[in-house]
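Bench notes, afternoon.
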Amino acid sequence: MPEQAGAGARRPGSPVRRAVRRNSVRGQILDALRAALVGGELTPGEVYSAPVLGERFGVSATPVREAMQQLAIEGAVEVVPNRGFRVVERGARELGELAEVRALIEVPVMLRLARTVPSARWAELLPLAEATVTAAAGGDLACYAEADRAFHGAVLSLSGNQELVRVADELHRRAQWPLVSGPVSGRRADLVADAAEHMSLLQALVAQDLGVVSGLVREHFAGA
């Protein structure tokens, strides 16, 4: 943990090692908080303090606070002075708006890729699509969220535009945050259906069926 690293602070080079270790802990906590958010362990509208979450993860409050600040920048939580961080409450309208923006960005790109990318390249993405099917079958929302973003990111990366991939991933991550009234369990059937659309999308991309690609992507985002 970060506070343990300070014991060797006077040794040559130790500040660099300590910085790397601290960043590593912060990154691990950020990943854990994102998984808890997507999985519904962090409830919309509830306030969580860094010390309490630190005890939960077995670390000091500092890396938790830093990770929460990053989530605040991303819009997942908001700072509550002298209390901690409140998980943002989202409604269906915001989710619909995110779906519309994602479609405006990604549909044209996927249609272009469908016309230009060889079928062999699409075949390379099959393991990623299959990973979403496996995650969906397990019913783990956090695991599925990671597999889902990995698949979509791989598809868009074929465009060669890394800025596009970054922006799309940010929108995708926000679309995965829980709704205020949305259930966080019993959604395995929805996940399975969502994962099946990945397989169908790959088939349409290989076949260069632009109409099916466009329809699938729009429906996929609308149901995200």
